[in-house]
Design goal:
Shape: globular
Strand content: 15-25%
Distance between the termini: 28 Å
Strand order of the largest sheet: 8-1-10-9
Order of helices and strands: HEHEEHEEHEHEHHEHEE
Low-confidence stretches: none
Length: about 250
Amino acid sequence: MSPSLPLEDPLVRMHRELARALNKDPDKAKWVMVIDLARCIGCHACAVACVSENKLPPGVVYRPVMEEEIGAYPNVRRRFLPRPCMQCENPPCVAVCPVTATWKNKQGVTVIDYDRCIGCRYCLTACPYGARCSDFAGFYTNATAEADGLILGRKAAAKGYEDAAAPEYGKAWPPRGHGSPIGNARKCHFCQHRLAVGQLPSCVTSCIGRATVFGDANDPASYVRECMGSPRVFRLKEEQGTQPNVYYLA
């Protein structure tokens, strides 16, 4: 076996460390993400997995992958930058909410109470990363033809996905089209519903390059803490004073 191959898949290690964090007082964990740009190949698997996991409608994307072309022909390259919510220590989106519908939880994740959100979109404007979206009640299958008994139309296409309730925040939301989160601000929440049952966020498990690292920053032995100490580490827009909890490796 090549000495360059890891002895253990990083996902196995992260799962083990997640279990360790949940076995102690979960409120003492601080969830942090590190994205190694050298490992990201721009496959968008994380973005697709996120959309599928959270039943996101058109126009709502929690984890876009930004692409940039650099160089001049024939020496052209593309580089990719996945951009989830930064889960800032000092989140501008929280301070502007007029109804206190968004806040940082004990584990450092900025969450939204869909029942309290009035859809004013102040938070969308305040976020310097553009990490929040507004749910305008779209359906991917709106233009799909429907003819009972003749073709499998929109109802069949939407069954199991668009008509299903989002699992976010571990709450049984009504089938889509019947109230929240339609009309609300929405954002990445590190898959809180998955963490609660000992599963890593869907963007982490779907990353084929193992470019996304997730874990408890309060655990000095964790993989994510190890990555945070890399000389390649940086954060986006540090000059804004937001103190993001998503780190990148250049």
